[in-house]
Recover the amino acids of this structure.
């Protein structure tokens, strides 16, 4: 498809379980972002990749959160030992074709709704 | 540091009436500003963006926004609301780098 895709769309995890959320960005996009959106709130920045390099992980709430993008395309956000406060929608966005002018415009996927019980 | 304040978490308008959603920002440098719309169970869709060109920006679905530096505002308007405009709207800012900071959002309901 032409847009950003994420899987699974919904995930229910028992407290203490590990989860992995996948993001397929728009083909050719250099930049990839993860955001966390709590219920009734705007998205909050988690981390940013440029190709395979993770340039900013300042928004990751704890060391239980880990993100990777090993080949500069698909990315995975992993949450270890999930807690109830991790319940949120996790949004992935991508932007920036190599060599194109920078516009800072980000294209978002539909998100993964994580519920920790 | 940059931040965004959206005034009013809920706005209710009649079909055909003006839609006005307020956004004020703070930024240490001239910002790039965006409005996104989010329909239930969907991701964010870009409505329009300000990138230091024209101060009046036209977007999709009949929306427009005006950048006012003196008021540090970027309010979103649509002259005539349609039922399909019912959604949540987010204002976002980035000060010339990659990280978007979002407001808390404004939910729009449209009355028939």
């Amino acid at each position: 498809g032409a847009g950003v895709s994420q899987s699974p769309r919904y995930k229910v995890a028992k407290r203490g379980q590990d989860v992995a959320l996948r993001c397929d960005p728009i083909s050719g996009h250099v930049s990839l972002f993860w955001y966390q959106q709590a219920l009734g709130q705007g998205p909050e920045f988690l981390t940013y990749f440029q190709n395979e390099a993770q340039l900013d992980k300042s928004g990751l709430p704890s060391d239980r959160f880990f993100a990777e993008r090993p080949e500069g395309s698909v990315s995975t956000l992993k949450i270890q030992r999930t807690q109830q406060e991790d319940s949120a929608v996790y949004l992935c966005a991508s932007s920036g074709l190599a060599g194109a002018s920078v516009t800072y415009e980000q294209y978002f996927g539909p998100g993964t709704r994580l519920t920790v019980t | 540091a940059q931040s965004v304040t959206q005034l009013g978490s809920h706005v209710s308008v009649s079909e055909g009436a003006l839609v006005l959603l307020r956004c004020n920002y703070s930024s240490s440098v001239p910002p790039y500003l965006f409005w996104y719309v989010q329909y239930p169970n969907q991701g964010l869709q870009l409505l329009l963006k300000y990138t230091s060109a024209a101060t009046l920006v036209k977007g999709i679905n009949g929306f427009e926004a005006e950048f006012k530096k003196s008021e540090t505002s970027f309010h979103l308007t649509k002259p005539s609301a349609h039922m399909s405009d019912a959604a949540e709207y987010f204002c976002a800012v980035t000060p010339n780098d990659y990280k978007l900071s979002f407001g808390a959002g404004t939910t729009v309901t449209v009355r028939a």
Observations:
- Residues 96 and 103 of chain A are 8 Å apart (CA to CA).
- Chain A is about 0% helix and 50% strand.
- The two ends of chain A are 33 Å apart (CA to CA).
- The mean pLDDT of chain A is 92.
